[in-house]
Design goal:
heterodimer, A: 408 residues, mainly alpha, 24 helices, B: 114 residues
Chain lengths: 408, 114
């Protein structure tokens, strides 16, 4: 009886918290609760944030560095040591999914979808099925704004190099500036999986904070006169053009940069399902059921990588700061090129649509609309800003493709 | 565990510039392709619209519907050897003498009696 009670006490999570390194778990539990608060109360990307927070919570209350390995092996939902062996080329278990399946916990098995790059691509099918590329097709010059707004990716990449990160890690940190969660996760999983937790949290947090990050930069870089510009109505796009668009983009971009195939291929496949008009059932599944199921698995498994021993270090702070720099400089890049287009077009383009070139769809476009209407209440920039916004999705996929081909 | 190796600063800078340029070139070329497709589509739509206009006269136009006369009007007033100004004056005098509004009277013709 006493022995049973003693083993219950020594094997409990409370004993784990009190053991060596247990304070890190405690900090992570608090961080998980903060993320839950941000997701539920503040509604910062709640669909993913709640999943990430729960994943973080579950892994930190079931895995303790200070407890015996056999206890962690049987109790933990996520085993960082299994994944360390999986990624270690010198280990006999390198790239061995069989060991993960046989010895892993629930979240280890779900995490295979992240590691194999399946979830981000499936999410891209859903995003494609939900995206209307009409504003981009009617105004193709929006693509230049989508390209310009990748400035932050390469600026943060340089910053991360200066701070001593490796090339792979710097590329993964830089891609936060693309403001595209699935792209950031796919790139990080391939290039620097050890940073997945902080990068995913930084990417989704800053995406949720776009309405706070962008407006001061927009107002600082544009004049009142520029913000007041009313743009002319976009031309109507035919159904044929909308069907041809995903096919053309897939062929053209993937031929140009083959490493973009998973992202661009899935994004455009989803869009084709939407536009053909003959695959409505599939489009409906991609937009709703598939998207929701994958979001659930992705959130919880990414959150689980935020184990205290990996997360609480100086690198995480650097990543959070560099992520903010990446977002800000992406906004600056888009605005500056939009200002150039304003000059070249003789004042016909409102520079505010440049900030929408970061691919956080449709939040960045909504911010452009709101700022435009503040300057001129009769201004409607939303559809004009949607062009650069969806161009940003393609732009960040190309940026990720470039980084994957150089460092992958 | 750390992935990859540290890059010399010059190499990192070159990679960053090259990456940004690749994104611009990729999207710039894509822009050109989409513009081209758009131009072809617009031209095709114009051609179809023009073809529709050309083929329209083949369908016989319906006979013009006669205009409905305004209430109280007798239609066109016929004037015989009378100046329109004189006719207007005559109609006004008649209306005045009869104490009736002009639009309730019907004038069929005015002829100068010699």
């Amino acid at each position: 009886m006493l022995n049973s009670l003693a083993s219950l006490v020594t094997e409990s999570g409370f004993a784990g918290v009190l053991a060596a390194g247990g304070y890190k778990n405690l900090i992570m539990i608090i961080i998980a609760c903060v993320l839950l608060y941000l997701g539920i109360k503040k509604q910062y990307e709640p669909l993913l944030m709640v999943g990430i927070a729960v994943g973080c919570l579950l892994s930190n209350i079931s895995y303790f560095e200070g407890l015996p390995a056999e206890l962690n092996a049987s109790n933990a939902l996520y085993h960082p040591e299994l994944w360390a062996d999986f990624l270690n080329e010198a280990s006999p278990y390198a790239h061995n999914y069989g060991r993960i399946m046989s010895q892993g916990g629930l979240i280890d098995i779900l995490y295979i979808g992240v590691k194999a790059g399946i979830y981000p691509c499936l999410i891209f099918i859903g995003i494609g099925a939900m995206t209307d590329f009409g504003p981009l097709i009617s105004n193709p010059s929006s693509l230049l704004l989508g390209a310009a707004a990748q400035f932050g990716v390469f600026f943060a990449f340089m910053g991360a190099n200066l701070l001593g990160f490796t090339g792979n890690q710097a590329a993964s940190i830089g891609i936060i500036g693309g403001a595209d969660g699935p792209t950031a996760i796919l790139t990080t999983t391939r290039l620097a999986p050890e940073l997945l937790g902080p990068i995913a949290v930084a990417a989704y947090s800053y995406m949720a904070l776009i309405p706070m990050i962008q407006p001061p930069i927009m107002r600082a870089l544009t004049t009142e006169e520029e913000r007041k510009v009313k743009m002319t109505q976009l031309r109507e796009v035919t159904k044929t053009e909308k069907i041809l668009f995903p096919i053309i983009v897939t062929i053209f971009v993937v031929l140009l940069l083959p490493s973009t195939a998973p992202l661009i291929g899935c994004l455009m496949f989803g869009n084709l399902l939407k536009e053909t008009g003959v695959t409505e059932r599939l489009s409906d599944v991609a937009q709703n059921a598939l998207m929701n199921i994958v979001t659930l698995f992705l959130g919880i498994s990414v959150g689980a990588t935020m184990i205290g021993s990996n997360f609480i270090n100086l690198q995480t702070i650097y990543i959070v700061v560099l992520g903010l720099i990446a977002f800000s400089f992406s906004t600056i890049g888009g605005l500056l090129v939009a200002k150039l287009m304003y000059k070249l077009s003789g004042g016909k383009i409102n520079p505010l649509i440049g900030s929408a070139g970061v691919s956080a769809v449709p939040m960045a476009a909504r911010v452009s609309q709101r700022e435009g209407q503040k300057a001129n209440p009769s201004n409607f920039l939303l559809m004009h800003a949607m062009g650069p916004n969806v161009a940003g999705v393609i732009g960040s996929a190309i940026a990720a493709g470039f980084l994957l081909s150089v460092f992958g | 565990m750390t992935s990859g190796v540290k890059l010399p600063l010059g190499t990192a800078l070159l990679d960053a510039i090259l990456g940004y340029v690749v994104v611009f070139i990729g999207l710039g070329l894509l822009m050109a392709v989409i513009m081209l497709v758009g131009k072809i589509m617009v031209a095709k739509a114009k051609q179809e619209a023009a073809a529709a206009v050309v083929s329209k006269p083949a369908i016989p136009e319906p006979a013009p519907v006669p205009k409905k006369l305004a209430p109280g009007s007798a239609g066109e007033l016929k004037l015989y050897d009378t100046d329109p100004r004189d006719a207007a004056m005559i109609m006004a005098i008649v209306a005045n003498k009869l104490q009736k509004p002009l639009n309730e009277l019907r004038f069929k013709s005015i002829k100068e009696v010699k």
